[in-house]
Amino acid sequence: MTQRVLLATGNTKKLTELRRIIADNDLDLEVVGLRDIDPYPDPVESEWTFEGNALIKAREGMIHSGLPSLADDSGLCVDALGGMPGVRSSRWNGPEQEDIANLELVLRQIEDVPRGRRQAQFVAVMALVMPDGREFTTRGEMTGHLTNRSKGSRGFGYDPIFVPDEQVPDADGRLRTSAEMTADEKDAISHRGRAVRAILPILARELGLPVPEGLRVEPGALPGADREGPEPTLPASEWTAQIPVIGRPEQGGAKPAPPGVPSSGVTPLEP
Ligand SMILES: O=c1nc[nH]c2c1ncn2[C@H]1C[C@H](O)[C@@H](COP(=O)(O)OP(=O)(O)OP(=O)(O)O)O1
Ligand SMILES: [Mg+2]
Q1: What is the position in ligand 1's atom list of the atom closest to the CA of 54?
Q2: Would the annotation count 149 as a binding residue?
Q3: Which of the four, 84, 96, 208, 267, has the lowest number of CB atoms within 10 Å?
Q4: What ipTM was estimated for this complex?
Q5: Does the annotation list 255 as a binding residue?
Q6: pLDDT at residue 99 above 50?
Q7: Distance (Å, whole) CA 184 – CA 191
Q8: What does the buried/exposed string (b/e) look like for 75-91 if buried means 16 or more CB atoms within 10 Å of the residue's CB?
């Protein structure tokens, strides 16, 4: 019998990407969205890290559905802004969570930053929470730089201002934003593609499903994975997604600061 898994996200474009990446990997799974279960209030994303917020969303999904639940917490980390907006990406311009207003604010904030200093990374953490309470996270990143105006209409969020490093320039030497890429091109290199491809073998193992060939990964590299198993078959480019993040500086920018002391020169928002 096909097993069901909940994808606990309220963002329909993110859900489309997640469904697409999972569907590309031949797992015998029925993916259920939040629209398919009884509604519950959006949990507050009150943590300082992508890992923390992804777990909040996946736990809430599991509690309300009883199903193994996956959630993504993701964002854009801009070097010239000390790693912000990071975990605050979706609310950067305020609680309205408006993509265009958010990206316009980032563009204004780095208006005077020259091309050579406009590096940024997208980060995605996938969390899996099982009905027995066991929890797993994986992380994926995509590096690039920011344009000074929007280009392209595909994707969502900050895609129109983000130029991924991993691409071949066109005949005129021009590089594209991730909003100008096809779905397959973006999924192959994206933070979300990497984080999902890293969590699928864990999900398969937890559900007792065969792991699709191309997805076998270094067993010891996965948090919570068995130490014994087959040789890894993932390309080296996928490996960063499986490095456990314990002890690694959070790129979300919003690191816990002592009470009353703003981190990164910006007063953290109340959770
Ligand atoms: O591939 C991406 N291309 C462009 N922008 C992206 C991407 N991935 C994340 N982002 C931005 C959008 C949003 O500003 C934030 C995610 O915020 P995040 O809280 O994880 O998602 P959300 O509130 O839209 O949906 P939900 O929390 O219900 O999953 O990062
Ligand atoms: Mg959110």
Answers
A1: 20
A2: no
A3: 208
A4: 0.99
A5: no
A6: yes
A7: 13
A8: bbbbbbbbbbbbbbbbe
pLDDT in tens, 155-193: 999 999 999 999 999 999 999 999 999 999 999 999 999
Q: Minimum-distance ligand to the CA of 87? A: 1
pLDDT at 235 over 50: no
61 lines ligand 1 (CB under 6 A): no
Q: Ligand 1 atom 11: the closest Cα is on which residue?
A: 75
- Residue 87 sits at the vertex; the CA angle it makes with 85 and 92, to the nearest 5 degrees, is 45
Q: Which ligand approaches the C-alpha of residue 72 most closely?
A: 1
pLDDT on residue 248 = 35
Written as one letter, the residue type at 62 is M
Domains and their CATH numbers in the chain: 3-242 (3.90.950.10)
Q: Is the CB of 118 under 6 A from ligand 1?
A: no
Could you write out the DSSP letters of every residue in the chain?
--EEEEE--S-HHHHHHHHHHHHTTT--EEEEEGGGS---PPPP---SSHHHHHHHHHHHHHHHH-S-EEEEEEEEEEGGGTT-BGGGGGGTT-TT--HHHHHHHHHHHTTT--GGG-EEEEEEEEEEE-TTS-EEEEEEEEEEEE-SS---SSS-TTGGGEEESSS---TTS----GGGS-HHHHHHH-HHHHHHHHHHHHHHHHHTPPPPGGG---GGGSTT--S--PPP-S-GGGGGGGS--TTSPPTTS-----TT--BTTBPPPP-
90 CA distance to ligand 2 middle (Å): 6
User: What is the distance in A from the centroid of ligand 1 to the CA of 91?
Assistant: 10
- Whether 36 is catalytic is no
Q: Which residue type, as a one-letter code, is found at position 108? A: R
Q: Report CA(91)–ligand 2 centroid distance (Å).
A: 8
